[in-house]
Design brief:
CATH class of the largest domain in chain B: Alpha Beta
Number of strands of chain B: 20
Low-confidence stretches of chain A: 82-87
Order of helices and strands of chain A: EEEEEEEEHEEEEEEEE
CATH architecture of the largest domain in chain A: Beta Barrel
Strand order of the largest sheet of chain A: 6-5-4-3-2-1-8-7
Oligomer: heterodimer
Number of strands of chain A: 16
Helix content of chain B: 25-40%
Radius of gyration of chain B: 24 Å
Shape of chain A: globular
Number of domains of chain A: 2
CATH superfamily of the largest domain in chain A: RNA polymerase II/Efflux pump adaptor protein, barrel-sandwich hybrid domain
Low-confidence stretches of chain B: none
Strand order of the largest sheet of chain B: 13-12-9-10-11-14-19-17
Number of helices of chain A: 1
Chain lengths: 159, 478
């Protein structure tokens, strides 16, 4: 999953994360890989960069901002808002929070305009999310059963 | 006193502090909240709450008629004003007295006398307490200014009568300086404050802001609870305080002299509550009376920590005519050292308020840390109130231990979603002059610790943010 951090001046950088099966995450930033070990003990999450020294992972983070000493970054999971404008008909974005029920198209598959790409449950109703353009599925950023917040880029279609 | 109903006309951490003391003493703590406080954390400690409708401070926390209505309706016996708001308002304490409601603070006359700068200075002078030497009134001519400067000795300060906030004043080191600056300060005073009148005052170089805690009862007993050093300031507001003063150090004669001077000031106005006498102390350890604050102060916890005297509880007892927790001045002793950091919702570099919504809050503190605060996830810091959201207080066997503890504590304090001055505190605590206890009120202006606050966030912080969000996606567990 790719994360974008954008400061007040709309300058951004990306940080990739892979969630591994062995309770670790791998971060990739500008080609550098960093491993993070994670553990849940007594309801709290702990992290370690070396697997030896552990610290509590503060239960922060669930909001979409990161405040540093000099800047406030907006955090975007899986997309960056500049893509909202550029992406056009090929970018399938959640309009409200919802849950992925079924995905019909996988990466690399051809898709026609108006074709249903996935089903999203929102406000207790199932919504067919249709492609806005003819093209090829470039990226699927979601899994079935996943809960999504509003403004999330689910599927990218290259026209 | 037990069972009396006390209304707390305040909010945030001080409302919590007062509610704790009231509950502990067996009184009923009654809190208030207003329309622009959607998540008022201070109510957690109050036994009852009443709504103070309105959305700005004039309609609420400063609205005497409305507060008097609440007092009548909810059968309130006493009021604690905290600090700020109505804590030093003579009109309010007189209104309460008329209704027979106990004001937890000093008598209205003491509030009035110490509230007026010229009267309080005169009172201190008459009580034999040194005040900053200077002209007794306006100085009309440059010749007059030179004459007074000759009497009190250089350096002197030419100061606008109407000035304030460090503006409209210039130091003069020689007669030549006075000649060169007199007309210029007059012009500044006229353009900045609309009035050209000037004063001449002794200029205290690298001054220390040292204050003495007073505790008095209604029977005429006045005690001092030693001093606090409050010299780390920005915009004339304190950000770090410690007790006892490292500048006075082991000089017990000076300590006794300043503390006894404070008692003299308090006795001169028949003081009968908790209060603070502020002094300015020069490099030569000569001290001068500045003003008296007739209320509980933000930094009272460091005094409580080194003496074991519960200032808020004793202030309440004094107001209801109960005996204090101790019997003589000798019962009050300094043990160890305490340091307080004011945690504010502000930019650590510009030091300007930065309101916002707190989304995460975690603490991992060393042994013996006191954290008086009103920080909760979802708590919104609005621009309507002071940006101070907590006070981190560490007590140690000596200054070195207190420093070590507070440094470790600030590392374990994580507040997410808003900017805070935590990063600035870390820089100051690591800075050599502060570590040695060598600093005056010029510290922020000359050492400039704010320039050493890291501007670039470590990649690690971004990774941890991502890890937290990813974990949240899978239900918060690995």
């Amino acid at each position: 999953m790719r994360y974008y951090f954008m400061n007040q001046d709309m300058q951004d950088f990306a940080l990739d994360v892979e969630v591994n099966r062995d309770q670790t995450m791998t971060f990739i930033h500008e080609g550098h890989k960093t491993n993070l070990h994670l553990k849940t003990l007594a309801g709290k999450n702990y992290y370690s960069f070396d697997g030896i020294a552990w610290k509590k992972l503060a239960a922060l983070g669930v909001n979409e901002i990161l405040v540093s000493n000099s800047e406030i970054y907006k955090v975007y999971r899986g997309f960056k808002p500049s893509g909202l404008n550029k992406g056009g008909a090929g970018a399938l974005i959640t309009q409200m929070p919802g849950k992925v029920v079924k995905i019909f198209k996988q990466e690399g598959e051809k898709v026609a305009k108006g074709e249903t790409v996935l089903i999203l449950e929102a406000m207790k109703m199932e919504n067919e999310i249709k492609s806005g353009a003819d093209g090829v599925v470039k990226a699927v950023n979601i899994k079935e059963g996943q809960a999504l917040e509003a403004g999330f880029l689910m599927v990218e279609i290259e026209e | 006193m037990k069972g009396k109903r006390v209304l707390i006309i305040n909010r945030g951490e001080i409302a919590i502090r007062v509610a704790k003391a009231l509950n502990e003493l067996g009184l009923v703590s009654v809190g208030v909240w207003t329309d622009n406080e959607t998540e008022p954390p201070h109510l957690e400690y109050c036994q009852e709450w009443v709504h103070l409708s309105g959305s700005n401070n004039k309609e609420t926390y400063l609205n005497i008629p409305k507060i008097m209505e609440l007092i009548e309706k909810y059968k309130i016996d006493g009021v604690h004003p905290g600090y700020g708001f109505l804590s030093e308002n003579r009109e309010f304490s007189e209104a309460l007295a008329k209704k027979g409601v106990t004001f937890i603070g000093p008598n209205p006359t003491a509030v009035y006398k110490m509230g007026a700068k010229d009267i309080s200075k005169q009172i201190a002078k008459e009580a034999g307490v040194p005040v900053v030497p200077g002209s007794t009134g306006e100085v009309p001519t440059v010749e007059e200014a030179i004459k007074i400067a000759g009497e009190i000795g250089y350096p002197i300060l030419l100061k606008a009568v109407a000035g304030g906030g460090g503006k409209g004043m210039r130091p003069c080191y020689t007669e030549e300086d006075v000649k060169n600056n007199f007309a210029a300060v007059q012009r500044e005073a006229l353009s900045g404050f609309g009035y050209a009148g000037l004063l001449v005052e002794k200029y205290v170089l690298n001054p220390h802001h040292i204050e003495v805690q007073i505790l008095a009862d209604k029977k005429g007993n006045v005690y001092h609870v030693f001093e606090r050093e409050c010299s780390v300031q920005r915009r004339h507001q304190k950000i770090i305080e410690e007790a006892p003063s490292p500048f006075i150090g082991t000089d017990e004669a000076t300590r006794l002299a300043i503390c006894e001077s404070a008692v003299k000031c308090a006795k001169a106005v028949n003081y009968d509550s908790a209060g603070t006498v502020e002094f300015i102390m020069g490099e030569d350890k000569k001290f001068y009376f500045l003003e008296m604050n007739t209320r509980i102060q933000v930094e009272h916890p460091i005094t409580e920590e080194i003496t074991g005297v519960d200032l808020v509880a004793n202030m309440i007892k004094a107001a209801f005519g109960e005996p204090l927790d101790f019997k003589s001045q000798e019962d009050i002793r300094i043990q160890g050292h305490a340091i307080e950091l004011r945690i504010c919702a502000e930019d650590p570099i510009s030091m300007l308020p930065a309101p916002g919504k707190i989304v995460g809050f975690e603490t991992t503190f060393p042994q013996g840390i006191r954290f008086d605060h009103c920080i909760y996830p979802k708590f919104t810091i609005t621009p309507d109130f002071d940006p101070m959201i907590g006070k981190l207080i560490a007590k140690g066997f000596n200054r070195e231990v207190a420093l070590r503890k507070v440094r470790n504590a600030v590392d374990g304090l994580i507040i997410d979603g808003i900017k805070t001055n935590i990063a600035l505190h870390k820089v100051i605590l690591d800075e050599e002059n502060f570590k040695k206890g060598k600093y005056s009120t010029n510290y922020i202006g000359t050492v400039k610790p704010q320039e050493k606050v890291a501007v670039k966030e470590e990649m690690k912080a971004f990774m941890l943010k991502v890890a937290a969000i990813e974990l949240n996606q899978v239900g918060g567990k690995v």
